[in-house]
Amino acid sequence: MASLFAGKVLVVNNSARDELDTERELGRSLENKVLLLYFGAAECPRCREFSPLLRDFFVRLTDEFYVERASQLVLVYVSRDETEEKQSRFLKTMPKRWLSLPFKDDFKRELELRFAVADVPAVVVLKPNGDVIAGNAVDEIRRLGPACFRNWQEAAELVDRNFLLAEDFDELARRSLTEPLRRLKYKLSKKTEEEEGEEPC
User: Fold this and answer.
1) Angle of helix 179-197 relative to helix 166-175, nearest 10 degrees?
2) Is the dihedral of CA 62, 64, 68, 69 positive or negative?
3) pTM over 0.85
């Protein structure tokens, strides 16, 4: 997916205004994730109605308050705002994990043409390789909420980050501060169970 934004800059939505501009940074942020391109404008009445739904949708899938592990999801805001100030003001009300194209970047228009976006709001859902899962998922998000992510995840054929090979698990366990205590407790309780299960001679 980083190839879609090759040579471009994505701005991280936080107060420091960090920028992802190297191939490595973009790759790390976008690889093995479902990508949402949100075409919208702060002044658009339909966007004003939809944006809070999208914010809640995104937060419920990526915030550890709601989920044990953040979903493999990334969102890039493609602004149709009239001024940079309006874009900035809008983004301040949105999650810090959102990315956006710089206001003056003409690539926004290229994306609109590429994905045939005529009206806003529009949410284009892409696989990690850039293939389109949904041309406009606005109605699906309204109707199903976070549940629709499961369908996208399957369609995108993401590599499940929760899957760990045995050696990976052992490596993680060795790094845990409580690992020695857990092992000791497990061995003691296992011995106790074995001893209880033995019949007297």
Assistant:
1) 110
2) positive
3) no
